[in-house]
Write the structure tokens for this entry.
Amino acid sequence: MDAPAVLLPPWRGLYRLIMAPWVSPLLARHVTLHEVAHVIGGDIEEPTIFVFDGPLPEAEEVADLFALLGILDAAELEQGPEYVEARIRELVPLDNYGWQTYRVPRLAGKVCGLASARVSGT
């Protein structure tokens, strides 16, 4: 399997997430949290392949933010968008899927904004 993971729609009330054998434990955590966000959001009606090929719908961005907030700690988020961008690239090394080009810079700014809004209570 070239993609890191595939999430299958529910069958008998259960979702199945198939992870590629080359996925690192940290990347597996990100992928799992990302797909859990889709399950919570009710976005899974057909098999979903975890790939990146450019700007994607809002549901993808929400799932990415959910996953990143689950793998980045508060101290990292306080370092600012440039640090967070570098850290995301290190923790979620998906060079071949458009992740680095299309999504990491935007997500770094957004995840820092969410973290600062949470701290300030706004």
